[in-house]
Amino acid sequence: MGLVDTTDFRRARSPQAKQQREAAILDAARALGAEHGIRQVTLTDIATAVGMHKSALLRYFETREEIFLRLTAADWQEWAPVLCAEIGAAADGDAAAVAGAFARTLAARGRFCDLLAQAPMNLERNVSVEAVRTFKLVTLSAVEAIVAAVRARLPELTEADGVDLMAAATSMAGSFWQIATPGPQIAALYRADPRLAHAIVEVEPRLARILTAMLQGMTTTRPGHT
């Protein structure tokens, strides 16, 4: 990865300059995470990529976890309207189409899946309470919009069903993506030994199957379902 263009990284003296610095840091972290995986990226890596000393970077973000938590929030905000639009295109009552929309849009966002796995394990644990509050409010808004879109197509579902669906979809997407992207040597091992074929995971079809079964189970157990 090349260095971000940073002609002058003296301390920002205005709100606009501070926003520009923060945007450059987030862009560098996003690129490094996509290239190496979130777990492998250090604060020093990010600082180097933007041409800053680590101590200077800490004027803008308290920890590396805060940087990636901000990126997770941004990905939630990008994903939610895309998913809502795809759910809106499904036919009324088509649980498989709703499940497919979740699986397709999540599988297409590998970095987001990586962040979804890291957020509860690491990213929310080394930041301020205020940073967690801000993040949770962003995700709450996204979840509410997605649950409303799902219930518009599957009205048998309760609000709690929708929240359970969201929890299942995002947690499984994070886990499946981690399993589906082992190191190259491990990936070669799985493909070379037929006995280990079960370890090869394709995120989209597996997620679609599980979420379809979940939604069909929820809808067919509701009173009045025909």
UniProtKB/TrEMBL annotation:
InterPro entries in the record: Homeodomain-like_sf, HTH-type_TetR-like_transc_reg, HTH_TetR, TetR_C_34
Residue ranges flagged as DNA-binding region: 42-61
MF (Gene Ontology): DNA-binding transcription factor activity; transcription cis-regulatory region binding
PROSITE patterns, sorted: HTH_TETR_2
Keywords carried by this UniProt record: DNA-binding
Domain HTH tetR-type: 19-79
Protein name: TetR family transcriptional regulator
